Amino acid sequence: MTSHQTTQTMKPATAAKKLGVYLEATPAEFQEGVVSRAELNALQAEPPQWLRELRANGPHPRPVVAAKLGVSIAGLARGGVTEPLTTEQIEALKQEQPEWLQKERATQAEVRKETARIKEKRAERAARQDS
What we know:
The protein has helices spanning 12-19, 28-32, 37-45, 49-57, 62-69, 73-78, 87-96, 99-130; strands at residues 9-10, 35-36. By secondary structure, the chain is mostly helical. Strands 1-2 form a two-stranded antiparallel sheet.
């Protein structure tokens, strides 16, 4: 019995998420078709001009905006940022340093510090159990 391998495909929204781009800003042919795993790998390995342009200038999806600003996605929402932003808009926010952004960055720093503390504590506990 021979097995036939089927081509794994994904919806454009999933592919856009994996590529880190805002779906509505992608070309119509990307939005309307399906993307195979091989096509996704090719796009990641050698991004076409439209993909390079989107990654550089946006508009960027919320996870990318949050990462560029150093805050959580929930922090963006608390700050009133619900729409995709361009790189220019993100840089303007960084320059302005509104109060909400300062507060959310501080919150994010505390979360990272606490996560590191917990990870360290678990590692110590695991080391003690191994001895």
